[in-house]
Specification:
globular, alpha+beta, eight-stranded antiparallel beta barrel, Cyclophilin-like_dom_sf, Cyclophilin, Cyclophilin-like
């Protein structure tokens, strides 16, 4: 199975590479059934977060996020970071070759609908 996923918001599509853990594998299996569309909201001026409608296995570890990091939060939400944060998180993947400015332009202010699909 390909190790990439597409993340689409409006007219912008990013490619992300999955992390190497059971959480990312579980998300791949979920996406194999079709795209996942999530309503994501701003949180703390550093991320977009939205529920995935199911629980995935967690592999929490102390990490510092950066622009483009995709994190599983509490096993049932996906987070796309556009700024840094340090905490115990499960890394799901990372958007390839993206800047904070590009993420902010694509996701905008407030809520945004984001579609995740296999690459």
């Amino acid at each position: 199975m390909d190790n990439t996923m597409k993340i689409t918001a409006g007219d912008t599509t990013f490619t992300a590479t999955f992390a190497d853990n059971s959480s990312a594998e579980a998300l791949k299996e979920l996406l194999a059934g079709g795209p996942l569309t999530i309503r994501m909201s701003d949180y703390a001026d550093m991320e977009k977060v939205g529920p995935i409608g199911t629980s995935l296995p967690k592999n929490d570890e102390q990490i510092t996020t950066g622009a483009g990091d995709i994190i599983l939060y509490q096993g049932n939400s996906l987070v796309i970071y556009y700024d840094t944060n340090a905490w115990n998180f499960t890394r799901i993947g990372k958007i390839n070759d993206v800047t904070q400015a590009e993420l902010l332009e694509a996701f905008g202010d407030g809520d945004v609908t984001v579609t995740f699909s296999l690459g």
